[in-house]
Amino acid sequence: MVHAAEGTLQAYLDGEIDSAAERALRDHVDACASCAAELETLQRVNGVVRESLALIETPVPMLRARAAIAREQNARHRRVARIGAWGLAKAAMLTLLLAGVAAAAIPDVRRALETTFSRVVAMFSGAQERTADAPVQPQIVDPGADVVRGESFVAPVDGRVRIVLNVPAEGSVEVIVRIIDGAQAHVETATTGTESRRVGPGRLELSGLGAGSVTIGVPRGVANAAIEVDGAVRVFKRDGSLHGSDGAARGSEVRFMIGS
Amino acid sequence: MEFDAVFETLYPSLFRYLQRLTGDEDVAEDIAQESFVRLLKQTLPEDEIRPWLFTVAMNLVRDRARKNERRHRLLISAPELVTRIPLPDEDMERTERIASVRAVLGRLPERDRQILLMREEGFKYDEIAGVIGVAPASVGTLIARALKKFVTEYEAREVSDGSRG
Asked: Is the predicted pLDDT of residue A123 greater than 50, yes or no?
């Protein structure tokens, strides 16, 4: 006779065998004293263990765990809310980008987008914080026929504007640098005369300049600026490009006259 | 099933399992709580939640034991100390039996302890097999052997205590 395995008898006690196997096992145990004894042993040890484990059962503390779970759930809700807000912001940016791409087919919109984009790029690259090393490409102008005492000129030098002043020994000129939308210009002077400076908002005034040169660095991030010599605008920067005052070109310098 | 319902249903069972397994209510509470906090981050089919919880809890028990071996040893031996406190006869007998159960349970191999305690919490054989990593067909045999080991040890201890008293 093949005896029932102890695992099968245990599975029978635990209700883990199907009804057909259960019937067959019961029939076998009824006819087999050895398996009946083994089943009895298992029933007894099951009872002892169950009773023993009941002895070491303690009340279940639920309060602290409930509170901890509630805290974690609240924290998760807050995190989800934050992520949701960021997601909405990203969706809005994506929508704007797509709208921009779609609108870029229209020339006016494209120009506006390009300008905006350039400003945003400049803003995020910190370009407005840097002082100017932008290549200066002034349109060279003819100052006209009102030469009185000497000819001066403006030239691009190493990305800066250099104003060369041909000033009679007893004369002097005034240079005003106006920075319309940015940081202060960097100015170096090397002239005869008794120089004085005045600094105001968006404005640097140099007076008493004699013969020599004034080198002006206009910050790269400045889109609009003007340099005046004796009250006349000689060089200006508009939308980031440097220009001579009257648009007439000659060589690589802007020439002007120092008049009385 | 909502998380709160899962918590109310399974937390007592997990706590009991851990408290019997470790012999320490504070440890059981901490680990049961941590297991449920981790469950919050999971998305599981309903029938996988209980095995997952018990598996995670068991891993946390092992981690804790590894990190603090000395404390683990104290936990195992703690019930022995309780028996030395003078108590009324009835209480003393109960206390001694509790100490014996904990001591015997503590001496069983970890797998046997897990199997007995999971079965006590109503786990089906295939769930036990999944958690401890054995074939479902072998679970009946493993339970039977673990039961016998427990009872043999427990009764030997009772006899030993009786002969001393």
From this structure: no
Residue B124 has pLDDT above 90, yes or no: yes
Query: CA A188 to CA A106: how far, in whole Å?
Result: 45
**For residues A12 and A25, is the Cβ–Cβ distance under 8 A?**
yes
> Distance between CA atoms of A257 and A251, rounded to whole angstroms?
16
pLDDT of residue A213: 82
Quick check: is B60 in a domain? Answer: yes
Q: What is the largest CA-CA distance in chain A?
A: 138
- The reply to whether B62 and B119 lie within a common domain is no
> A-side interface with B, Cβ within 8 Å?
5-11, 14, 16, 41-42, 44-46, 48-50, 52-53, 55-58, 60-62, 64-66, 68-69, 72-73, 76
Does B81 have pLDDT greater than 70? no
Question: If DSSP codes are grouped into helix, strand and coil, which group holds residue B42?
Answer: coil
A65 vs B33: CA distance, rounded Å: 5
Interface probe, candidates A9, A25, A45, chain B, greatest B C-beta count within 10 A:
A45
Flag whether B99 is in a domain: no
Helix, strand and coil content of chain B, in percent to the nearest 5, comes to 85, 0, 15
Domain count for chain B, please give it: 2
Inspect the interface and report whether the beta carbons of A6 and B145 lie closer than 8 Å: yes
- Assign domain A150-258 to a CATH class: mainly beta
ipTM of the complex: 0.81
Domain boundaries, chain A: 6-55, 150-258
Model confidence pLDDT, tens digit, residues B127-161: 999 999 999 999 999 999 999 999 999 999 888 77
In DSSP terms, which residues pair with A205 in a beta bridge?
A176, A198
In a domain, B79, yes or no: no
Cβ atoms within 10 Å of A255's Cβ, excluding its own: 22
